[in-house]
Amino acid sequence: MTTSHLQVSQTDKRLRWSAIILALLGLADGIYLSYIKLANATAACGGIGDCESVNNSPYSEIAGIPIAILGSGAYLAIIFLLMVEPRAQWWRDYAPIMVFGLSLTGVLYSAYLTYVEVAVLHAICPYCVISAILLVAILAISVVRLLRSDELDA
Asked: What is the pLDDT of residues 28-84, one digit of tens each?
């Protein structure tokens, strides 16, 4: 293995673990919001934003399933893919593009929900904003990883 390939490998490992940590934070955020929704509890927004208006809006569910549960599932899938990636060649080949797809879908849906918060509900949920930022960061990491893997293949 060449020195540059070893450096790319170490860099990719750091990027992968950074994405895992971000996804774990997103999962914690999603679990908290799921609990708030399912327990009909009040979110601890600390005077920042209006979590209740967002959490109780018709936009907080799809077909009766809370968005927070769907988001938690997406974060779990991202964590799973990133964890199994080094275990077999098939995962090394396909997990990075799957993480890209999941995070891109999450970013696009978060952008829609942010628009709804601002333009329709006139309320912002800081936990939703945190999730959107985490998804953007995971997406950025996934793009960098895909570009780096293309450089190796060239």
From this structure: 999 999 999 999 898 888 778 888 889 989 999 999 999 999 999 999 999 999 999
Report phi then psi at 65, rounded to 5: -100, 125
Q: How many domains would you assign to the chain?
A: 1
Q: Rounded to an integer, what distance in angstroms lies between the CA atom of residue 80 and that of residue 99?
A: 10
* CATH number (domain holding residue 107): 1.20.1440.130
In which domain, by residue range, is 64 found? 3-153
Distance CA 4, CA 10 (A): 10
- Contact at 8 Å (CB) between 138 and 78? yes
**Tokens found for residue 46:** 């600390």
State the DSSP H helix or E strand holding residue 66, giving kind and residue range, or none if neither.
strand 65-66
